[in-house]
Specification:
transmembrane, mainly alpha, transport, 297 residues, Arginine/ornithine antiporter ArcD, Na+/H+ antiporter like fold
């Protein structure tokens, strides 16, 4: 039993350390040399992340229908989280438009993908990308609608990530195989995305503001607790295979996405509060995620 416990601790360390190390490098570098990541983030969203999505979905081993139950479970976690937390907004004293999006839309990209891959191996990458796609699609549809019900969803078709998703879905239903040089090209572009996401998260952490720490702490607790309770409640109904259920638990425990802050700034929806929710939530995940990994590994 002691050996097993030590192996779990070692596996958690091996999973968390590379992520924290890259985030820490981004944080320390930006503290010493103030860094504007806006261009790098735009390139990552427009080129590297779409390449990662298409790379995974166009692979010969990718079988999209096998991930339908996992994708449906992720969709339910996102929507039900908002429904459960919405009545608490008045108790906490925060506007639902400010609080609900960070509680619903998690850091499934620059934290979720590398975390799941490092914890469960390279074979988990397709599942991690599927979870990211569900979260991202809902964020740019339902999430934007929450902030502004006049949002035109047709604008989504101009986004490279959406186009890459559609192309990847179409490709996954064919028997086509990318020529080796083109496959290497797309794979190499996609491999840039995850480290750059983590580095950008570290840079963003330099702007953490503890002025609104109470709302941040509420978010840091409610986001993972609600997600995990919903995931545990869904399993008896959906009967996900054990490995997919493990991925879902990690997804459910993820902190709010950094994108929530960028979107709130664009819509002028109390970005100072959203920044506190997002950044303190990501700090708080250092406590929740190891516990979830200890349960799933």
């Amino acid at each position: 039993m002691e050996v097993t416990s030590w192996m779990v601790v070692e596996r958690i360390f091996q999973t968390i350390f590379p992520l924290l190390a890259i985030v820490l490098i981004g944080f320390l570098y930006a503290r010493k040399r103030p860094t504007d990541m806006s261009v790098a983030n735009k390139v990552n969203i427009d080129i590297f992340t779409p390449a990662l999505i298409f790379s995974v979905m166009s692979a010969e081993s990718f079988d999209l229908p096998s991930y339908y139950p996992l994708a449906f479970a992720a969709l339910l976690i996102i929507i039900l989280s908002g429904i459960l937390i919405w009545p608490l907004c008045r108790l906490i004293g925060v506007h639902p438009k400010t609080f609900l999006p960070p509680m619903m839309f998690s850091n499934s990209g620059n934290l979720g993908i590398p975390l799941i891959v490092l914890a469960f191996g390279e074979a988990a990458l397709p599942a991690a990308v599927v979870l990211f796609l569900v979260e991202n699609l809902l964020h740019f549809t339902l999430g934007l609608y929450i902030l502004d019900n006049k949002t035109r969803l047709l604008h989504l078709l101009r986004m490279p990530m959406i186009l890459a998703t559609l192309a990847g879905v179409a490709w996954s239903y064919t028997d086509w195989v990318l020529p080796a040089p083109l496959r290497t090209f797309v794979d190499m572009l996609g491999q840039i995305a995850i480290p750059l996401m983590l580095f950008a998260l570290g840079v963003r952490m330099t702007s953490i503001d503890f002025t609104h720490w109470k709302i941040g702490v509420w978010g840091a607790i409610l986001a993972p607790v609600t997600g995990l309770l919903i995931a545990l409640s869904l399993q008896p109904l959906l009967q996900l295979e054990p490995q997919h259920f493990a991925y879902l638990l990690v997804f459910a425990a993820l902190p709010p996405a950094v994108l929530n802050y960028m979107v709130s700034e664009r819509y002028n929806q109390e970005p100072h509060l959203v920044a506190a929710i997002v950044l303190i939530g990501n700090v708080g995940s250092l406590a929740f995620i190891p516990l979830v990994l200890a349960f799933t590994l």
